[in-house]
Amino acid sequence: MYDNHKYGFSTIPDQEFDKYSMICDRKCSRHTVYTKIPFVDEFHSRFYSEGEVLHYANNLNYPKISIPYYKVEYSFNLWGSTYFHTFDALFNPNIMIEKKELSTTSRKTIKTKKSGTLIHVLKFDFPDEKMLALNLPNQIIIFDIKNMVRIFDV
Amino acid sequence: MKMKKLNVKSIAVWIPSDRVHTSLLEMGFSIFDTTTTVSDGKFWSKKLFIRHEERVSVSEEIGDVYPKDPVITICGSTNTINKIIGALD
Question: Among residues A27, A36, A66, B32, which is most buried (max CB within 10 A)?
Fold first, then answer.
């Protein structure tokens, strides 16, 4: 699992950003992202107030909230050569309202308490293992290659 | 229960992914989950459909991409593969 600021709210496509639109807003892709409402990022244990910048357009490499992801790598041995298939699977946001006890002195929070304040909470759910699997049959696989981009002389 | 012999076929189609999803649901598949994957800097929305031991994933690139040509990867019986391809023709 990685959480290394590779994916931030400003650089993800609109379709992915829409999942976060309840808590933050941006003009369009690669623009500055602001919070719309106060919320708690439970994954990183941080509280954000309304109007706070989450990702600056002029600092795209360092988002304040990093979207965690799994790095998936498959390797295949074929006729003595190894081929790699790699991709990242982003964690899915899960936004809900919960009662939280917020600390006034520290931006680091956050205890769940019955007497706390109702606030939006951003959680990240990891993708199911089935979503990362390559489904291959057990028997011999025949590659039906119609477009050869490179030909090796024998 | 005897396991079906499963084959794999991956195709790109020139029809909207919604139509592909509808066809799969009509064939008795159910949506398992959706996730966003990133490969070579491109974002993809991947939906997984399951019917018993058969699995079909429908991946579509998201972002400012046109035209949309979802990639369907079927791990199923020959009969299922033919039915899906027939339904999308």
Answer: A66
- Give the closest of B7, B62, B64 to A16, CB-based: B62
For residue A154, name the pLDDT band (cuts at 50, 70, 90).
Answer: very low
Distance from CA of A71 to the nearest CA of B (A): 9
- A-chain CB neighbours of B43 within 8 Å are 12-13, 15-16
Judge: A135–B38 Cβ closer than 8 Å, yes or no.
no
Q: Give the residue from B11, B37, B50 with the most A CB atoms within 10 Å of its CB, the best one to mutate.
A: B37
Q: Is ipTM strictly over 0.90?
A: no
If DSSP codes are grouped into helix, strand and coil, which group holds residue B8?
Answer: strand
Alpha-helical runs (H) found in chain A:
14-17, 129-132
Angstrom distance (rounded) from CA A97 to CA B33: 23
Count of the separate structural domains present in chain B: 1
Is-contact B26 B83, C-beta < 8 A? no
CATH of the domain at B36: 2.20.25
Closest by CA to A68, choosing from A134, A152, A2, A149, is A2
